[in-house]
Amino acid sequence: MEPLTEKQVQQNPAVAPEQCLLYQGMAVGEVRVAEKRDFEYLRSLIDNNDYWKLEFKKSSTSVWTRDMCNTTFKMIKIQALFADVRPSTVYDVILDGEYRSKWDTSMLESADFGYLDGNNDIGYYLMKCPAPLKNRDFVLQRSWQQLDSCYCVFNHSVFHESLPQKTGIIRAVSHVTGYTVTAIPGGGCRIGYVTQTDLKGSLPAWMINNITSALAPKMVKRVYKACLKYEEWKAKHSPLNKVWLYPEQIKIPKIDINKCKKPVGNESSEPSEDITLLPESSADVIKEFISDGED
Q: Residue 127 domain-assigned?
């Protein structure tokens, strides 16, 4: 996403104008092979704390939030240390789709749909939500690369004509969700996680911000626990199959970019509203959402 225009900057008085003039990463719906600047943008979000607010810090884990241009949905960032996990293991855990079903308790369904090249693909992800909310799904372009000594993985929402919205499920939007992983002296690694997600439906922005702020550190904790069991699991499940490292192992079809262009006015007629939440029940819904699937 290119920097915002001067007019757009003026419409966002709560955000520092110079922040909006920076490169904003790949736009929702933009399908192309990720470039070096896209991975550098991810790294800058995680490594640079300018414009971020520290919300919580405990031991080696910190949680940050950031107001973003042209939206009321905050970006959430986690910085943490995995003292006993190798960077390459974290990279494998994040990208191993078969193993994800073993540790991602929010996932109901996931599938790799097609690829752009050896470091970019498009897939489908269905997320479980507690009642009275409807489940959410995403169509995502995922991009990954080792940049210098840093492993980088990120996704953003896109469109594909063969992956339309499903009845009874709300199509959510990931503006960006990603990880960086770097080695630390003496072993272990430093992990960064960032996300800006719009769950859509009738949920107000403040509730989505609260949910994502609470879910983000739980996701990092799940990744850590999954890393501790991965090597043993992988040794028994196609140990030589790592398509994210070896593109020659790709078996899914190549993406036709022409099928990733959303027709103008092609909005789903499927209702996108959750059951109306009473103000007094909102706190309970948030609590149930973030506790759902706890280990």
A: yes
Q: What CATH number does the domain containing 207 carry?
A: 3.30.530.20
Alpha-carbon gap, residue 284 to 178, rounded angstroms: 29
In three state form, how does the secondary structure of 219-260 look? HHHHHHHHHHHHHHHHCCCCCCCCCCCCHHHCCCCECCHHHH
CA–CA distance, 154 with 26 (Å, rounded to integer): 10
Q: How far apart are CA 211 and CA 270, in angstroms?
A: 24
- Strand bridging mode 136-147 / 150-157: antiparallel
pTM of the predicted protein model:
0.89
Two structure tokens written together for 250:
């790709």
Digit-coded pLDDT (tens) for 250-294 = 999 999 999 999 887 655 555 565 656 555 566 777 777 666 555
pLDDT digits (tens, 9 = 90+) for 24-47: 889 999 999 999 999 999 999 999
Number of domains in the chain: 1
Domain that holds residue 122: 6-245
